[in-house]
Amino acid sequence: MNEEERVLQDYQQEILDILRGQDDPAVKKERLEDYHANDMASCLPELTKEEREVFYSLLDMESLAEMMEYAEDAGQYLEEMDAQKAADILVKMEPDDAVDLLKETEPDIKKAWISRMPLENRKELQSLASYSEDLIGSRMTTNFVSLESNLNIREAMRSLIDQAAEHDNISTLYVVDENESYYGAVDLKDIIIARKDTKLEDITETAYPFVYADERIEDCLEKIKAYSENSIPVLGEYKEILGVITAQDILEVSDDEMAEDYAKLGGLSAEEDLNEPVVDSVKKRLPWLIMLLFLGLLVSTVVGLFETVVAQLTIVMAFQSLILDMAGNVGTQSLAVTIRVLMDEQLKAGDKLKLLVKEMSIGGINGLVLGFFSLVGIGAYIYFFKHMPLHVSIGIAFCIGISLLLAMVISSFVGTIVPIFFKKIGVDPAAASGPLITTINDLVGVVSYYGLTWLLILEIMQIKVA
Amino acid sequence: MNEEERVLQDYQQEILDILRGQDDPAVKKERLEDYHANDMASCLPELTKEEREVFYSLLDMESLAEMMEYAEDAGQYLEEMDAQKAADILVKMEPDDAVDLLKETEPDIKKAWISRMPLENRKELQSLASYSEDLIGSRMTTNFVSLESNLNIREAMRSLIDQAAEHDNISTLYVVDENESYYGAVDLKDIIIARKDTKLEDITETAYPFVYADERIEDCLEKIKAYSENSIPVLGEYKEILGVITAQDILEVSDDEMAEDYAKLGGLSAEEDLNEPVVDSVKKRLPWLIMLLFLGLLVSTVVGLFETVVAQLTIVMAFQSLILDMAGNVGTQSLAVTIRVLMDEQLKAGDKLKLLVKEMSIGGINGLVLGFFSLVGIGAYIYFFKHMPLHVSIGIAFCIGISLLLAMVISSFVGTIVPIFFKKIGVDPAAASGPLITTINDLVGVVSYYGLTWLLILEIMQIKVA
What we know:
Largest interface: A-B, 121 and 121 residues
Number of helices of chain A: 21
Number of domains of chain A: 3
Strand order of the largest sheet of chain A: 1-2-3
CATH topology of the largest domain in chain A: Tetracycline Repressor, domain 2
Distance between the termini of chain A: 73 Å
Number of strands of chain A: 6
Oligomer: homodimer
Radius of gyration of chain A: 32 Å
Shape of chain A: elongated
CATH class of the largest domain in chain A: Mainly Alpha
Order of helices and strands of chain A: HHHHHHHHHHHEHEEHEHEEHHHHHHH
CATH architecture of the largest domain in chain A: Orthogonal Bundle
Helix content of chain A: 55-70%
CATH superfamily of the largest domain in chain A: SLC41 divalent cation transporters, integral membrane domain
């Protein structure tokens, strides 16, 4: 197949062509049935308000609701409709998507929609909306099929068919006991290939994993991922099934958590996107920068203490940035590794010690290599290009090499111990560690470099060159 | 339910208790059936080699294969078995997991296993293994059900039941035409609720999304994620279905890609883990650090050019670290935002310009705030604590404030444009941008700070204090 043929997979354009074509509405309707809701949703921003209205009229409620699950800014499209139609669509949508949409809607519009829903759906959405964002409950959907454990396969299949029209997450089915408590799970595949008179409970996996609705997402995400199932049940206080977390939910949550960590490592308090107003981004970043400014002033004050050293030997100040930058680089590497390792909940105290020793060994080895390299290279540079006497060149190069080694070992230590410490006291290590590590590293670098220079060159060797 | 009851969900301990208990093997066998393969896999490292052998004898081949899919270091456990048993297990495993496992196995052991497999499976694994790591083909599994489009629902159901024992990804079924070419997909739910004499092709979604096996993962990952389906078919050159990418595969791939970006932002060439030998980590990080050292030397050389400025006014060197650190912080923020925005493939040229303007505006506003703040604060500090004359204090503070503003605007620019540039020329922006941005920012900061100081304080105001 050549590239040209591949390009044909432009479903968005095909849908737009159908909508804007001259076909009979009935024909358009039938042709649209072949397309995926996600591709239909991607057409919405390309259409005018009037074209969208025609589009909606060509879809049944179910397709319309599914399309809205995929649409960005779905709320905006619902607001164009009359309130009753919007409410009907919301009722047909996956409950967790509906809740997300409602959370971003103006209170009075939200009220108008919710008041037009059947009581049962209203209750369901309100109960989902009641979980705070960091709890599993806020990400679950009530789209699942539950079967009673005392059914046989034939009865279970009938119950499944009854529920499947409403609930289409059917690759894993949940089994409840006579008290409606969670009993276990069964693969649809096993039901399909089982003999018709087998008891459902005989093929139920009773130790199928589950989570509680009030567990914190970050506490159980890794566990859920480890099972790599299509869905995992979410239980309430009395082991009743409140909903399920699907693989799609897990992907979404996992992406969000990672993106958050990533943003924090980059010195952002939260993820930002392209369409956010400048003033919001400023507000997010400024407090962080102000804190960093204060920490920077602290470092400057300490550097200021060594003014006399620099006044007597100005050449040494040129290499300050080198030592601080390298310490910063090494510290960031250790930080990035440590934060990732800390995400694993099952980490034992021994593992942390192992990590610390490992990071310091790496820092030490790299520091030895780079320190030696700098000693020779910078010594030669100062001797040949700055025309300093040989013993002064060697002395300064020695100070730089040793400070580099010291700074790198200590940076590795700090870059590892600080996030471990923050994790221990319950502060998010990805957010808090960066500035503290930079500040400590800068201070260590400055003090060891200028301190060593002062001691060796000015005090011991008694050299003054400025 | 109280915390104590919740702790009871320690399936690993339960399984260990069963294995080490006094029950009859038949009883143990039956009790083990209730547990999830992931929990059984987590027991493997806790057992001795002899206990593992007994464990395996209690499981049927299917459960054994499933457990190995979940086990870390599954290869190591297979090596303990005789080669024929290992080969049998590999054949039963999900093909993509089996390929992953084989990739990490010594060539001679791998050969021994593969030679003991049926020809068909051998071919299948070899074909999966032939895709390079960055292509979709390397992540697909051949676990899917395909049905012919000319069947009716009754016939389709029968064909499904035949295939379901081997292939248990059945929530979405794939439909092929008479030439075995991809025709579309159908939800199992729709088959279950459809009338028995409906034609399969009538309920098939013919524009269901698909990918080609030779597409690059990073090129189509966002597209696949947008459809949030349980599986998406992977097609070959002639539109034949080679396999599917499941939601679990997508989660795994997505995690890997994110972790890689994250590691790169932290200055690591690739993700590292706790158990990697120190020497491997040193090898990964050292080349990076050596490059950074050279860039640092470049900055030091430029700083060295301003030696005379510092010699005449040593107090200014104390604030060099402040300006460089702040520029670095702002640049990293812009970098982190830009890399995330660039992951969206559908980005237009206008969006990039918009991002650039936005980042520079944020940098400018933050720079104005912090620059003004520094001007007042540092001016007062120098006047009151360093006992400089008022006009000198104001002059130096002015230089610091202006340099800070300049450095922050330019850092925002550099932090945005550099990753966009690298992306354009096809270099991974997450890996390459960091050091270049730091270096440029350091140079800009140093030149503007010392240059301004030289111009304003030494040349215009003619002040020499050192």
